[in-house]
Amino acid sequence: MFDWSQIDTVLLDMDGTLLDLHFDNHFWLEYVPQRYAQKRGMSIDAAKRELAQRYKKVEGTLDWYCVDYWSRELALDIPLLKTEVEHLIAVHPHVIEFLQQLKAIGKARILVT
């Protein structure tokens, strides 16, 4: 257990820590390929193969995390697509309570994702 009296600031990651990764996985591996295939008149399987190669090329770089990059590269409005499936975003259990408790005891909370 932590000695919270020795901690002033809590640094938090968003995906996989605060939020369930299911949304990101579904979005990039299922939904984007579906919409990419629709736009280009190709099969979803072909779109998945093509996108997997494109994802792999930039994995581990800042472009991997940049929605503007993907919007430009895929000619898709990635922010708009995210709003279409935002109902799938889920917070991990107890996250809200944890963040509220940190605030109540005066700890700074910083998102570093």
TrEMBL record:
<dbReference type="InterPro" id="IPR023214">
    <property type="entry name" value="HAD_sf"/>
</dbReference>
<dbReference type="InterPro" id="IPR036412">
    <property type="entry name" value="HAD-like_sf"/>
</dbReference>
<dbReference type="Pfam" id="PF00702">
    <property type="entry name" value="Hydrolase"/>
</dbReference>
<protein>
    <submittedName>
        <fullName>Haloacid dehalogenase</fullName>
    </submittedName>
</protein>
